[in-house]
Design brief:
binds adenosine-5'-triphosphate; 4-stranded antiparallel sheet; about 300 residues; 8-stranded mixed sheet; 12 strands; 2 domains; Ribosomal Protein S5, domain 2; alpha+beta; Alpha-Beta Plaits
Length: about 300
């Protein structure tokens, strides 16, 4: 009898700080970041099949036309990697239901890769040890290990070495999506051009870690940083208005998420987040939502 399909849910990430260092010999930039998983999700359903196939659907507010359906899709790459890691000649049908905007700086593709690894591990009853899944995830992309882990964690190396950090808060974010995505490589290239050669190694700020451990939203607001923000704002100057409007409406601080163009606004509580959301919506930003963090990493939501 064939196994029942398995659905795994994985969350979007934001970077509370994102320090970008020099380009390493392997072509990656050295990163020192603190990730937080927030309550926006993609679901991946894996079903037994003789050959690989992929379908992508989404809520109507999400444009999936830029999501590749061929072997370059990171979910298919994840599936093939897991099969070859175990020496298996197996395949599956993958269905991705996207709730995370594409090319938004929220690592939706990485969430799909993490969800696929976990869904196939359960579908095929492989019991891959966590450390092995994390290592495979790191081969797929810098943000994929964090999508497995979730919560709040620092990322070192090129972001793939993840370690949980103390987080006493339950944080309220207003997430402002953009109609057009931004290419991550383009924003890194912009940063390299802006700052030349002598780039120090990046570090995670102690003030940020202290603010998280204390659950202190004012201190966290003062410690949010992103080295990719200036290059993202250079390419998309309109995002400055989003950040300024959010702060004027009562947010404690605004930040471009990763390489953008999604902006996130930290608010003191639920009430404040709702009123910041309403102001942005009234100003014409149609895709604005309130999300909390931290939330769990990739987890099974149906499993018969
Ligand atoms: P990055 O993870 O590179 O920082 P991002 O978070 O801004 O990117 P993603 O939604 O992860 O944005 O997608 C980046 C690009 O990856 C897309 O433009 C698309 O071409 C490609 N891609 C491959 N697989 C997927 C997938 N499963 N979902 C979304 N995009 C994918």
């Amino acid at each position: 009898m064939s196994a029942a399909p398995v659905t795994v849910r994985a969350a979007a990430k934001i970077n509370l700080c994102l320090g970008v260092g020099p380009v390493r010999d392997d072509g990656y930039h050295a990163l020192a970041t603190v990730y937080q998983a927030i309550g926006m999700y993609d679901d991946v359903t894996a079903t037994e099949a003789d050959g690989w196939s992929l379908r992508v659907s989404a809520h109507e507010r999400i444009d999936v036309t830029e999501v590749p359906l061929d072997d370059s899709n990171i979910a298919l790459r994840a599936g093939r990697l897991l099969a070859s890691h175990h020496g298996l000649d197996r395949a599956a049908a993958l269905d991705i239901d996207k709730g995370i905007p594409v090319a938004g700086g929220l690592a939706g593709g990485s969430a799909d890769a993490a969800a696929t690894l976990l869904a196939l591990d359960r579908l095929w009853r492989l019991d891959t040890p966590d450390e092995e899944l994390l290592r495979l995830a790191g081969e797929l992309g810098s943000d994929v290990p964090f999508a497995l882990l979730g919560g709040t964690a620092r990322g070192d190396g090129h972001g793939e070495q993840v370690t949980r950090v103390a987080d006493a808060g339950s944080w309220w974010w207003v997430v402002v999506e953009s109609d057009i995505g931004l290419s991550t490589p383009r924003i890194y290239a912009e940063l390299d051009q802006m700052r030349g050669d002598a780039v120090p190694d990046p570090e995670v700020s102690v003030a940020l870690l202290d603010a998280l451990a204390a659950g202190d939203s004012t201190a966290l607001a003062g410690a949010l940083t992103n080295d990719l923000q200036e290059p993202a704002l250079h390419v998309r100057p309109d995002l400055r208005d989003v950040l300024a409007l959010g702060v004027a409406a009562g947010a404690l601080q605004g930040l471009v998420s990763g390489s953008g163009p999604t902006c996130v606004l930290l608010c003191a509580d639920h009430e404040s987040a709702q009123s910041v959301r309403a102001v942005l919506h009234a100003a014409g930003h149609e895709r604005v939502q309130v999300a909390t963090g931290p939330v769990a990493g990739a987890h099974v939501v149906t499993y018969a």
